[in-house]
Amino acid sequence: MKKKWIQLLSIICCALPCLAATDGWKLAEGPLKTRWTDEVSPRNALPEYPRPQMVRKDWENLNGLWQYAVTPKDAPQPTTFEGSILVPYPIESSLSGVKRMVKDSERIWYRRLFQLPLGWRGKRILMHFGAVDFEARVWVNGREMGSHRGGYDAFSFDISDPIRSGLNEVVVSVWDPTDASTQPRGKQIRNPHGIWYTPVSGIWQTVWLEPVSAACINGLKITPDVDGGAVRVEPVTPALLGEYQLEITVKDRGSKVGSASIQPGKEARIVIPKPKLWSPERPFLYDLTVKLKLGGRSMDSVDSYFGMRKISLGKDQKGFTRMMLNNQPYFQFGPLDQGFWPDGIYTAPTDEALRYDIEMTRKLGFNMARKHVKVEPARWYYWCDKLGLLVWQDMPSGDKYISGNQPDITRGPESGAQYEQELTSMIAGLYNHPSIVTWVPYNEGWGQWDTKRISEMVKNLDPSRLVDSASGWTDRGTGDISDMHKYPGPGAPDPERNRATVLGEFGGLGLPLPGHTWQAEKNWGYRSFTDREKLQSAYLELVAKLFPLIDERGLSAAVYTQTTDVEVEVNGLMTYDREIVKMDLKTLAVANKGKPPVSPNKP
Question: How far are the Cα atoms of 64, 217, 349 from residue 38, in angstroms, in the given order?
Answer without folding.
Answer: 15, 38, 9
